[in-house]
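Study this:
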Amino acid sequence: MSIVKDGHKATLRKWHEELQAKRGNRASLRRSTTVNDVCLSEGFRSLLMQTHTLWKIEAQEWRFTALALVAAVAANVKAIDERQ
């Protein structure tokens, strides 16, 4: 069972593509050393605006932190192999 629906996956892929073009946003995420740094970065903010249905669920605040961790890791990924 996956908590990430197909629509969310498409949104995450689109955000990742945009992140590659917006080098400043990507750099802000890559320079982050704590989860708080990630949460305050411009790159994460752009992801939040596109994915409220993924993280804005009552009594599941952990999703916000999980999304921040995904953003931090994704900033270090150059390309996504979609063959899988």
